Write the structure tokens for this entry.
Amino acid sequence: MKEGITPQQVVDKYHAMMKESFDQLGIAFDVYSRTSAPVHHETSSAFFKKLYDDGLFEEKETEQYYDEKTNTFLADRYITGTCPICANPNAYGDQCEKCGSSLSPDQLINPRSTLSDAVPLKRKTKHWYFPLQQYEPWLKKWILEEHTEWKNNVFGQCKSWLENGLQSRAMTRDSNWGVQVPLPDAEGKVLYVWFDAPIGYISATKELTDKWADYWCKEDTKLVHFIGKDNIVFHCIIFPAMLKAHGGFVLPDNVPANEFLNLEGDKISTSRNWAVWVHEYLQDFPGCEDVLRYVLCANSPETKDNDFTWKDFQDRNNSELVAIFGNFVNRTFVLMHKLCGGKVPKLHEDILDENDKALIAEFENTTAEVQSALEHYRFRDALFQVIDLARKGNQYMQKKEPWILAKQLPENTEVQKPIDNCLHVCLQLCANLAVLINPFLPVTARKMLHMMKVVDKMLDWENAGKLKLLSVGYSLREPQLLFRKIEDEEINKQVEKLKNGRQQTTVAAEATNAEAKPAATAKPEIVYDDFAKLELKVATVTACEKVPKADKLLKLEVDLGTEKRTIVSGIAQHYTAEEMVGKQVIVVTNLAPRKMKGIESQGMILTAEDNDGKLQLLRPENPVSPGSNVS
RNA sequence: CGCGAAGUAGAGCAGCGGUAGCUCGUUGGGCUCAUAACCCAAAGGUCGGGAGUUCGAUCCUCCCCUUCGCAACCA
């Protein structure tokens, strides 16, 4: 709605955009689907129908508040009113933030809609509830006893839910966007997003293969959900309970939820354009797909929120990818061409020394560590181990100093042997590095394959840790640099772009609107007479103070020419009392008075909300006399 | 309000009862095949704050502070 287009257009736009971005970053999916696909509608409907036919839902008809102005049923959070317990006039339908009581909308005195400020009416609506509490004993056993290995943040959250007690939860909503409830008499009802969304995983598998049941219904399947911390409950509690209720499906083996990644100290937000857009990144850093992948993995918020900064991006690229990994591969190839005629030299086992043996042993050690880390979802650590192996390669080469040995060649041809050994080991290490880095940096792994003139098959994980990946005597290509250095200038540009982009959101949003079809209005059309019912006037603020114990409210005295009025307005987080004095504002003067925090407000000040959620006062371009009509 | 997770050197992390460690970055020195690595040395931490338990606490207990998340028509 905000973009002025239909939900369908929104999903089409972003689906295409994300698919392309994933593709360009070398992130491949067996299937990249969406819950608007027909197969998903069928699958989720059928799932619902099965639970329904098995009598697992509670059908409840409730009276829910309905906002006639916007034609919508109101979620609890969208209703405010006076708290029955502490008389706070701004309690929400689900809880009062002043006294902390949990509420239901029915308990509110003088409820109103936060969408339109209308007085909501009760309307009957029927929904289907899933009795989560019935699965509580089973969930407790399954998670708290059988999955103690889950991550702290995940396990703790689940424990909290389970110990607080689960409740029936509506699995349908009143809406016209989503999957229709597959029952007669269910006009205008759709499945609750978090009912159908995880079923989307099953639907997508169906789209992939007829043998989808081999994945979902066989005990040897290991189901893992990679998610962010904000939806732990859906994947650990609700979806498993649904699967259990339905029967015949495997349950998640693990749900390694990550924390959040910030960007330059602020929360990432695509709507506020505080983001790094993949398609723009690839334009600005062509050929650097793997660098972004590297930094995101090395800095992934596995145990706590982390920050992506361009400076860190540069540091990690220059010191870890270029200087450690890239440099090792490069110097190995350069030396091999200089000292071994461009071919994989022989390994003279008779003269292997401790250094050789130690490094060779590292092939397997590191492989085991990387594998173990991956199996335990410690991706950061796994990647570190790979880079660390390259570091060990550098150390090894430094100890062996084949370039020094080479100086003795004219008088002693025997030294070719240790030179051969060093480069043989280093080259085999390069091959191992290619295999080990492949899951993280696939583009880099390909480049290495090319240099080694070997086939893709070599990258199979089974090859990790082996000493003999390259054959003796095989001639290899000239080295190509795997990574390039990233200069300060490029980084500064990105930081600037980010900061400028933040202000351009409005422009971007307008551009989107211009392309889109005529916007569907959110509210029904009205006639002039409806508009004429409003009395809007310009007023000058003569005094202003903050309302005590209310963080959002300012109490204003305004001059309407013929009279003065007191108005309470929820703009305290956007304007200070001092700066309001003397400003002109537009006031709805014939709005019924309402008390807020014990002060009667005799009107309402008009504001507009920008993309940052900041309120902007509406006011005349040039000062006019107080009391002027607005039309 | 409550619940969960997190808070350890400039950055990213480990440690979890006994002199605070790793990688990167910084500074000085050595070396040079390499987009320079590597070696040596150094600087940099009242382990979020306070109380307690203990012979001893970053680690255990309690309180507090900060950040993020917690069934919203949001995968």
About this structure: The mean pLDDT of chain A is 84.
